[in-house]
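re: ur question from the group chat, yeah i did fold both. here u go
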Amino acid sequence: MISRAAALFLLLASFAQGVGLRVATFNIGAHLVVPSGGGAAYFDYGIGAPGQPDYDKVRDVIARINADVVALEEIHTTDVNAGNLSTLAASLGYTYSYIAPNLNTFDASLRVAFLSRFPFTTATSIDAPAGFKELSRLHPVVKVDLPGTTKDPTIIGVHLKSGTGSDDRFRRAVEMKRLALYLTSQGITAEDNFIILGDFNPSATNKTFTALPSGLPGSFALGTDLNFPTVPITYSTNPAAYFTNPIPTKLDPRQVNNSAATYNTSVTTGPTYDLFLVSPAIAGRPRSQEIYNSTLDTSNSIGLPKAGAPPAADTSYVASDHYAVFADLEMDQDYPNLSATLSAQSVPENAPPGTVTISVTLPAISATATTVTISSDDAVTVPTTGTMVIPAGSLTGTVSINTATNFTANDTRPVVFTATAPGYDPANAALQVIDADGTYRFTAAGQTITENFTTFAGGHDPAPWITSGGDWLAMDDGGNATTGFRAYGTGIDGSLGFIGNSAPGVTNATFANDSANILTALKIEFTAEQWRAVSGGSAGSLNAELIVNEGQQSLPSLAFNAATNLPTGSITGGTSSAKSTIVSGLAIAPGSTFDVRFTFTPGPGSGPVPDEVFINEFHYDNADGDVNEFVEIVTGPGFAEPLSSVKLILYNGDGGATYGSSHDLSTFTPGAVTPSGHRIYSKVITTSSASIQNGNPDGFAVTVRGVVRQFISYGGTLTATSGVANGLTSVNTSLTQTGEIAGQASIGYTGSAGSPPGFTWTKFSEIPYTAGQPNTGQTFTYPLQPQGIAIDNLAVTFLIDTDLDGIPDTLDPDDDNDNITDASEAIFGSNPLDASSVYRPTISQSSPTTVTLSFTTLTGRSYRVESSTDLNIWSPVSTQSGTGAPVSIPFSNAGPQVFYRVAVGYE
């Protein structure tokens, strides 16, 4: 066991000099409630009383981290009034505490609190000005009287408004502005020690508000000192962006497996909600940080020093839905300050190189060269080089900033740059990056719009593209068959890719004609990439369409079919193919838009990887005593949860309640692993107190993390009245056992499939059962592995007039020499490069006294039918709006000879 003294010694030793402080933030998130009638536990708010699982696990996490100061979020007022919080503090050796009041707040139940081993010289809370109401929860502020230094740190706890709506983001922005204004009002500078930590809920996208959004609470009252709306309020997902001077540095704590997730303790791949911001003075000193996950805490030699022995693996999960975060910070060393300035305060995305630069200045000339590292908190707005060298005898160095698109259509976003150098406190500078993501826009005829997806790394639709038919997944070029959209390639050369299963994926982007010309023809080019090629896999394909006025025009010359004839068993990068086509006969007026759409279609036989968990075979009734009665459970090849997360629960058809104990899959005996990757587990359940009941009816439920995956019964149907399946009605196997010979006549699935819908329940009469093995007549299947296809290097050109043969229309207005000008053919919808493509109405004798005029139409055109008896004077007969459908108009053929013609124009 590592004592507190030993842990503190290790901390100080790592700093060589100075006074160390361990600080933690922990959103306790939830109170785990176990229903009195049995069943899975569920989350409520609060820590509860000592002895309850959630209280004990919260205590175990804090004890293991062993921080000097802990900020706790979601402390319920009930826990304060009942003494649960004070009991927790006393049990952990925290003598001092401060709890933010719940007056003038919108959430009067949940509060933010500090526990400390050191006294506070001051303790207060950040609130709205008198007479106004803005904050969900008040921000507590404490100044800790830290022994051994005069540089006592100011620590601010936050728990910002959650949610992704405009009203939620506006309230978070106001809460952060109040915090930033507090630092300014207190005269806190970059050289002071301050720490801001807690649950920032940095979700959704940036947004600038010039008016109050809808959805605010009726009692919401914004302080007039913010001068809103004269001064807009901007919500940013980057909390450091709310500060001007000083700008804090956001730390980057990780779990010991390098995950940055702090939310959803059932996984390690969730979002990062819980953050640390520290002053430049602290950021420039030695420091270390960690996100605590008890599942990964297996040894005192892993991660930062901790107290005691590792707790149970499920401690973090039971304690909260958030992971705790902690940091070892140094408070007392002093370094001279760097300064950083930008040549411009704002710049658009994709600005030319050199549009904006960052300069870093030393506090005094150095006799030796100084290497300065420049980092950005934005993945695509970065310095052209990560380091600069300030030569000996110089004060300043300068580098350019690259401002690539981030493929997210949002408001202006702040990007914070940090300059660091050994022996100096860092400097921060904030750049406002103006969004340029959105509809692609032609501003002049002849223009080419290109999209190479440079810097696109996946995770979301790359604005202005919209996808459907699949989720966004992390970039993967290693043969992982998980289906959905992804960016194939790197942040330098990305693409828009898809792996299909049984359903197509569709993506399209909108283009606007902002020129003064009617767009009559387009050239569309792109590279089709088979970035994942599977030998013998499904034959996926890619097709393209042009969408104009909701009409769809297929572009067959842009189609791409994935290759499957690769070396046996190989999964490699495949081929690429340059695609190009010219689309003529268009009439897209200035101010109008059109879409380019791509459809990724999986080949026959492909499908999602089975991830089901299900009962595959069971035996419950013998002729004599209960012997070798068992249940067999199968997990699909795509199932990735721990076995302990799966439970088998027995249900009594007489009343619908649970009986006996639940059975973790981790207690089952592993059996066969099929060629398809299905895993089979079995367990004998024949004890004097909890053998499997004999039906008429009884049943089983299979759950994963408390969620019912399967609820079946035998000997009839039952409705559960307790436990996880409470209120659910079972699926009846419609089979029974009566006095069977032990070792024979089980009930199980037969057929060929990968999951239960493809199997059939069967009673294996007088056949030995096959616990741990596939059933008689059963084959487990795996769908054909899909190919990966992507689009890249897209170029869409607004062709000048219909000049498709390379000769200007002023010299050659009829490219195909059919005596119809290119401009007219664009209106008619015929092909200006094909002399046989001519627009011709037809007239036919439909009866002895009637003739019918017929002609095709295009959307966006107007068709005026005219008649004449002498071919000189023409009179209008009718006007039709083009719909894309043919039109037929009957006329009487009695009387003198009549001529008809159709005049076509743009609507």
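okk and heres the other one u asked abt
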Amino acid sequence: MQLKPWNEIAIPHSDVLKGTFQDAEFVADLSRVREGTAGPEYSDPIQFFERTFITEGMRLLMDGVVRRLDGRGGDPVIQLQTAFGGGKTHTILAVYHLASGKTAPAELRGVSRILDDAGISDLPKARTAVIDGNRHAPSQPLNREGITINCLWGEIAYQIGGESAYSMVAESDANGTSPGKEVLTRLLEKYAPVVILMDELVAYLRQFQEGKTFPAGTFDSNLSFIQALTEAMTAVPKAVLLASLPESDTEMGSVMGKKSLATLEKYFGRVQALWKPVATDEAFEIVRRRLFRPISDTDSMEAVCRAFADHYTGNADSFPIETLEADYLRRLKQAYPIHPEIFSRLYEDWSTLDGFQRTRGVLKLMAKVIYRLWKDGNRDYMITPGALPLYDVDIKNESIYYLPQGWDPVIDRDIDGDRAQTTSIDTKDPRMGAVQAARRTARTIFLGSAPSVRGQMVRGVDDKRILLGASPPGTQTSVFKDALNRLMDRLHYLNIAEGRYWFDVRPSLRREMEERKRRFKKKNDVYPEIRARLNRILTKGCFGGIHIFTPSGDIPDDFDLRLIILPPDCLHEKRGRYAIDEAQKILTGRGEQPRQHQNRMIFLAPDSDSLPRLADQVRTFLAWKSILDDVENMKINLDVMQINQVKKQLDSSGSGLNRMTSECYRWLLCPVQSIGNDNKPKKLDWECFSLNGNDKGMTAKIEAKLLAEEILVKEWSPIHLEGLLKQWFWKNNKTEINTLTLWQNMSDYLYMPRLLDAPVLQRAISSGVRSGDYFGYADGKNVEDYKGLKLGQSVRVVIDNKSLIVELGAAKADILKKEADKEPGTVETEGRTDGTETGKPYKGSKIPDKDEPAEKKKTRFYGTVRLDPHTGRMDFDQIYDEVISQLISKAGSRVDLRLDIEARHKEGFTDNVQRAVRENAKALEFDSAEFERK
């Protein structure tokens, strides 16, 4: 069936519907009811019970009262003690109308059942006395038809039996002393059945001052009277006393108020039946009975409640667990047309506020809400938290009356109204505007979080409870989830922590962060932080150097494999070349000089689509960091929960920043040259590879990608080396090449393989020589002969300008030639340890003369060698292995090493180079390191 809106099913009472009610109408004034000056909803017993829901607690109390008045038992003294606004006065009024007998019990809704359960057919009319502590003053006597009444006992006696009853306590009333238990017992017996109703008794007693006598007696005499009265009640079978005592500090007031309450609780505790009326669920019916007429179209009401229940179970992951229970449908029906979540928040949260009365406060607020919604023609199925019209000034003032100062701008700017951000969001997004998603979400958060106390451990409402209050049947919960995310980005006073949301009069930390983000500029703040992040997540790995946003002039031109990280404004996109153009400038030039070793460079560029998100994340991190810095420097004050929130957000944004940096810098730009059909290199080209996300570190991902795409060679077979030599170097009868020239060419030319480092080449040469199938290796060459030529045996390969790779045929020919050219007179020594034998020439060094004196051993060695600046590292390794290690091998040797460096540049060294060299030389503890002009 078609669901009907609430205003077609539940019709408000006329005073609510017309908006003619006054705040005072929600205040049950016991004295005005007795005097006949209260409104009909309180003074008329029929109307009163028509709008009163008899709760279980009230039913039990009234059952005890009627039994007591009929002489069938029941408690003589009943204390009503609840929190402020808990229904004490309303309960006393129900007993007053029941006992006064002005209207037959059969005409009072719900009373007949109480009498039937008690087995009473005709309730006797009782004499009633009403004491309203707010209407009596100890220093002001009352005049009753010419009789001056000073004390409570005089007033009670007069109300019970007029002048005759007063005469029984007249003397005690005149001198302000308690009449005593015996006098009170006789009084009650004479006029029974009697009902004495005392409301706001503490409010009366706290007016006394200790040690001071008033016309109404003293503080002690009044307490003595209360003690005597409670004991007298137990002695009279048809007498009952109801007294309301406060539970909250607000109602107790002064020190005298607290002392009065403590004493009264002790006296009442001896004979009383303690009763706490109105459970939270019963409040549903109390409010509905007071604000709405009885619902006749129960089928439509049940259909709406069923639709809400189905909406919750159909989206179980989006709503609180209690909505999935069968009992929640009962609660929906019980509270209709007001959603149970409104009652839960008002009774559980708002009732904790000082001054907010549980029942009366809810009635006042909801009466205004219902009037405004009715006036605006609201068509919701139920009145949910998201429907509260906080744009109405009267409702806004009523809701923030009990809150601290400063909530006006919160509602006007963030929550509701023509100028609120929520209205702007709904207006600009038709998907949200169709269901007022932003406004409903914000109103729900306000209702659930405004009474929050800053010091409480768990603050605000979670997203499931927000959806419960905002999303009615027929709507998509995803719309409200999107609205919640949008609110977090836009609202000034909305806070979030631990998955819970709340409004506060102070701007939210997130909003503070968003405003600070605008301070940070690309060049001065964002780019340096990206550089710092790259420096953290990039390890050296296989690279000889990693250069992050480094000018081309500061990137060395040597044999090390180098990874060049392009700055954030050098973006790569699939159809663009900006990053490639910048990379090519660095590839071909070192500052203003041409670059030689181009085949030793790999470039990493940021993704054009990802950079905006990365830049935003950087600003977010810097903003949170600046807030924490200000806290530590005591520039701003935050509570402990907010400081923890800042720290958590800083950690979260920092870890997210590392990930996003890695995701943004994902394009490998690799310069390549292919060979044409004419065996000549083609024009410079670029291969671009995207790094895939995995668990490896960023440098490991780069290395794996380069190896997988064969852009980088980590192990090289001698067969490939032989092919390279034949293609480029062994032409025009050339059969040899020194290793340094080969390594230089492979480092310079992009059409050659890009080896990881020189050891890869050394291993390939060594492997090829050892196999004897590819080429030979010589330590050097004289005019015609190779020195130390090896083929088919192990060899230690050196990269320098003397060592040679020899073409296989030439190597074999040289070996054969040397074997054929051996001197015919040389013989092998036999039989003598000194290497000589008669008739057989010595092969090798000169034969020593036995008579020649032994030479004196040399005690000092010195040597000087000039190193190639490009291969100096490899040359020094060889010198160390073959010379220095020999010199230090003998115990007692002392070897001093000194490195002399002299460098010249015709145009002079740049300031950056000078600064770097000086700093590094200082760190390496050079004896001297100076630049000079010559």
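fwiw on the second one: Residues 640-664 form the longest helix (25 residues). Residues 33 and 522 are 74 Å apart (CA to CA). idk if thats what u expected
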